[in-house]
Amino acid sequence: MPLPKLPTRMGVLLAPSNDAEPQADPIEVVAPPMLAAVPTARRTGAAEPSAVATQPASPAPVTQLKVSRKKTRLPVAKRKLFVLDTNVLLHDPNSLYKFEEHDIFLPMIVLEELDHQKKGMSEVARNARQVSRSLDGLAAGAKELDKGVPLDALGNQEALGTLMFQTSAMQAHLPIELPAGKADNVILSVVHALQGRYAKRQIILVSKDINMRLKARALGLQAEDYYNDHVLDDSDLLYDGVMPLPENFWTKHGKDVESWQQGGTTYYRIKGPLCSEFIVNEFVYFEGEMPLYAQVKEVSGKSAVLATLRDYSHGKNNVWGITARNREQNFALNLLMNPDCDFVSLLGQAGTGKTLLALASGLTQTLETKRYNEIIITRATVPVGDDIGFLPGTEEEKMLPWMGALEDNLEVLHLGANGSDLTGAAAGPDWSKNSTMELIRSRIKVKSMNFMRGRTFLNKFLIIDEAQNLTPKQMKTLVTRAGPGTKIVCLGNIAQIDTPYLTEGSSGLTYAVDRFKGWPHAGHITLQRGERSRLADYASEAL
């Protein structure tokens, strides 16, 4: 929501607007500006944010990182020659255009493997067909294919190198005898032959296959992973959405504080050196004699506007009978219950309450406040162990085995620990419980991601569970389904990725958190404490 007009003097109370939703008492505690000065504390496990909310470039090797500078074509001798493995093209069909001014070489066996992968409706098959169309478009305008094709021939201005195809047999005697006929060994033989043909150029094999890279290095060939899809090199640098304030915060930022109220929320405009490190919608907190819990609403140079939060740890502010058990859960509920926040991402290990909080806030805003007309739940169907095969029934029935977490959390939300209905009514006959569950289930739809393309969701509360198993492309496909009035909540644990070739740095969930950071209508929280049970908490640490 837009910030209210700044008052002419400090402490002026503005009357809440008539259309503002009534809210419970917010936390309005401001520490006095006379605290002992100590060195400014650095936040642990997070990168230092920039002065304004931007989308920073992802750390990656210089050869594959988009750098905002004037592009110039390098002489051929100074260009690197990257030999792409098939899995790179299948992983990212646009990888042909991600190597800036350097050249790309495609062995004939790679084209053969692309041909074998193009059939079917899977994501891999679609990527294979997209790569084939791109290669056909590039090769169609080439007069002499053996001399290479400019990679910017189809309008990709970032790619200034040349695409080279293998147009003749390349014989090479490897230092180690490897089985003939295997695609990986043929590619290694081609790389070895290229080193002899282009002795003055740097030849690099790019592959997502770890064993392929190990074999290349054992043969004295240079090999590396495909880094362009990596948002972060280290998952510890991922934005966590929370920033603790140092003990001397009010000493350095307590002068000329301006405060006002609107709609039950207190706003503070503060000035100081730490304000430039704030990110819009980031949560800040100070725990001491005079605690402060607030959310950053605006950042302008060395000035920032903070807004107090609703205290969801208090019983009167419960969400479908659920109260926050720790600081991060309170921050998460403030995002989930905020109608102005369209995209929310929650990270955390097993048992931190991600699904429970999302489902409770969805039920409250669907059945009580009528803000949304339906809850839609989907998830990536990647099995942990062996696949159990095809499942019978309709789309929703096929998805039910993947939705065990939904059933568990519905049971927690429906019945409290003492056997009472968490909606506030005492536990009655079984038919009353069943009717309540039927009402809840009628507003919850379980959908498969396979049928999401082309859809538009209007006034829906969309929960994407196990989002760490999505690729960035799949994440984009799901988030762009949102229509007017729809809220999307992404849940996941990047330490439990089951999709092949996805890492903590290249997961679609990591990609979304990094790209939405600082957008005024998005928020992110990393839940730290497990609240499932003492057994689950100990197992997460000890096992």
From TrEMBL:
Query: Does Nucleotide-binding appear among the keywords?
Result: yes
Q: Which UniProt keywords apply?
A: ATP-binding, Nucleotide-binding
Give the matching Pfam families.
PhoH, PIN_4
Give the highest taxon in the source lineage: Bacteria
Domain PIN, chain residue ranges per copy: 80-214
Q: Which InterPro entries match?
A: PhoH (IPR003714), PhoH2-like (IPR051451), PIN_dom (IPR002716)
**What family does this belong to?**
Belongs to the PhoH family.
Official protein name in the record:
PhoH family protein
